[in-house]
TrEMBL record:
Domain YCII-related, first and last residues per copy: 3-104
Top-level taxonomic group: Eukaryota
Native source species: Cryptococcus gattii serotype B (strain WM276 / ATCC MYA-4071)
Stored Pfam families: YCII
Protein name, UniProt field: YCII-related domain-containing protein
PANTHER family according to UniProt: PROTEIN YCII (PTHR33606:SF3)
Record Gene3D superfamilies: Dimeric alpha+beta barrel (3.30.70.1060)
Lineage: Eukaryota, Fungi, Dikarya, Basidiomycota, Agaricomycotina
Length: 122
């Protein structure tokens, strides 16, 4: 089954919105992981913006996202790219306006025979 790399850049200045939607986003991600359709998911950061004063500093628990978060990246396993897009568009970060809908990309990864045996990356 194909694998899809999804890059979901956040709109500017939506850190508070991201935090508000995070619990629902993580719950949906857990369901996807258990179903085997999400192999990897993680917020990505810009260290320079995290260290600058250009974004609000909000205290979050250690090991969790910070105000330097720029977006999310996921690897999905679905039969079609349309199903990968459906998963993206049902995510609370999409629905609640965290991800910049004009900048989200979903691309199929090159196939390798080992793709069928890939497991979730924690």
């Amino acid at each position: 089954m194909p694998l899809y790399l999804c890059l979901c850049r956040d709109y500017p200045n939506v850190f508070e919105r991201r935090l508000a939607a995070r619990e629902a986003h993580l719950a949906g991600s857990k369901v996807s992981r258990e179903a085997g359709t999400t192999l990897f998911g993680r917020a990505y950061m810009d260290e320079a913006s995290a260290m600058s004063n250009s974004r609000p500093k909000i205290e979050v628990p250690a090991g969790q996202i910070g105000s330097g978060t720029l977006g999310s990246t996921m690897i999905y396993r679905f039969p079609t790219i349309e199903e990968a897009w459906e998963r993206i568009k049902s995510d609370p970060y999409w629905v609640q306006g965290v991800w910049d809908k004009d900048r989200v990309t979903v691309n199929e990864l090159a196939y390798l025979p080992t793709d069928e045996t890939l497991k979730l990356v924690n």
